[in-house]
Amino acid sequence: MPDYILYILLAITGLIAGFVNTLAGGGSFLTIPALIYFFNLPPQIANATNRFSVIFYAGTSSSIFLKHGLTDYRLMLRLLIPSIVGAVCGAGAAAILPPKSFQLIFGIAMILMALTFILKPKILLETRHRTKPTPIKELFVFYLIGFYGGFMQAGVGLLLLAGIAIFHAKDLVKSNAIKVTLAFFFGFVSVAIFAYYGQIDYVKGAVIAIGAIIGALIGAKLAIKKGARLIFFFVITIAIITGINLIYTTFTTS
């Protein structure tokens, strides 16, 4: 197949991923395999290259949510610190370790999370404060989420939404605004570490980014227009798909 066709397909994949990531998460399960199968990139290079594109979709989404006054910056800044620390540790680990050791654990966790949301949808949809979060627990949870985001990225949006829902009862659209803004900032940390190790293919990352920006524009505007119910549907669907994918690849890849 001609290279230009592969690049077009890569951009289309980026568009779908940007849309899915803005509404829920898990778009990297499309873009990373595309980089591997279309261009034969090693998994670590595909992971790092995909991360380069993430900051573009996340920046686009966060700017739209900010424009509509939906981002709680005080909360976002509080969650950003442990997330960044975790992302530094996770990206450093990803630069030297294979992700397979984490896949099974997170795959099962994603499915359990989806089932929990199905049985108790108020966890995501309730907008009243339930209990005041314990600072230590909140720091620890968002450090772990940041670590996963730095290490693997795929599905981190789902974990961010879950973490925000557990500690802070917010409208799901507003939670999504915090999620993409966090992803934007700690994405820079991951990219810097992968760039240091020379693991980013900038041309292919830019092609994904072009598609992802378009997808993020569509996704953010749709999220604002359709509201929490649409995001809830995507979160449940993508969490199940992500969990199955992680478990499947654990046992089918060498």
Structural commentary:
The protein is globular. It has 254 residues and is mainly alpha-helical. The longest helix is centred in the first third of the chain and has 25 residues, at 43-67. The protein has one domain. It has helices spanning 3-23, 28-39, 43-67, 73-94, 100-119, 122-125, 135-151, 156-167, 172-196, 202-226, 228-252. The mean pLDDT is 84. 82% of the residues lie in helices and 0% in strands. The chain has eleven helices and no strands.
What are the salient characteristics of this protein?
single chain; mainly alpha; 254 residues; 11 helices
Largest sheet: none
Computed CA radius of gyration, to the nearest angstrom: 17 Å
How many structural domains does the protein architecture include?
Answer: 1
Q: What percentage of amino acids are in beta strands?
A: under 5%
Query: Oligomeric status of the shown chains?
Result: single chain
The helix-and-strand class reads mainly alpha
The strand count comes to: 0
Q: Count the DSSP helices.
A: 11
Please write the string of helix (H) and strand (E) elements.
HHHHHHHHHHH
Report the helical percentage. Answer: over 70%
Summed over residues and divided by their number, the pLDDT gives a mean of 84
Task: Report the span from N to C terminus.
Answer: 27 Å
